[in-house]
Amino acid sequence: MKNLNHSEIQTDIEYLRKTAISDFLNNSDLEVLFKHNSKVNFNTNEIILHQGKIAVGIYLILQGEVSIQAQIMGEGNTKIGVLKEGAFLGEISFIERGPSTTSAVAASGVSCLWIPHTFFDLLSNYYPSIKYKLLQSLNVQICSRLKQTHDKVVAEIAENKIKNQSFFAKVIHSITQPKPIQVGNIENYAFVREKFFPHLSNQEREILFNHVTFLEAPKNCVLIQEGQKKASCFVVVQGAVQSSIMNSNKIAKLSVIGPGSLFAGIACIDNASEFTITFTTCERAILLHIDENKLVYFQKNYYALWYKLFDLITSSLVALRKSIDKLDVRLHIEKYNR
Asked: Taking the domain 147-337, which CATH number applies?
């Protein structure tokens, strides 16, 4: 690892100015990253990340190309993509602080900026806006890969023997709607208020709960539907919610989300793409809802609160990415066994 001088920093910043990360981080932001982190060089075919191993930070590619690979049943070690300058390596394991889901191998001579967790955590106190911008850039990459896997899964669903959604189910989904509920009618409201957002200060929690809406939703109620372009977040208070991919009247289940968990629509990050993950209650549920207007309000008026909510949105998208990757693997195994 190498610490850079001013001239070297400016040279690498110029490389990054030509990449998508410049949409979020300006020169001053990038200088902070370079001054407090190290540059790492890799030779062709050198392994940067090992699938299944925990990394204690994240790599930002400065120069070169990196092959993303994974062990897949029936195919062995398979190349699943190539990342170039301005892309992050290991974003899923970085956010979750768990094992890497893929391996990263230098396809050429590669230079990366190594950003450890220790520095990233310090950003919350010293440079919160830079941490937020980093997460914005990470989320765009996560959504981009999420869309790639989504489109692949949709194609596999069309070939797979997944049951069509029944006409009755479609009718139920169309007529069931969530209704506002008064906090006095929520059995464990005090617990929710005190325990569901432990990372918020008392003042931030007060602001949040003064602007959110609580909803009661029956079973099979669609909360975020196909084609929805408005940003929206929910926290499950009671009951459970199922995420799924719906296409050509077929439905593929992804995961079940229980009490205390926040989930966010893709539109929180990307409202231009045509793909959407559907969220539907799988039993009667009580939910805390933050609509697009409130998200914008927090973003404009309460920066510290917004940054913390954005952390949760990022975690929800990472969980969604992992769920759709697991579905992709399951469909692949079923296809392999046929």
From this structure: 2.60.120.10
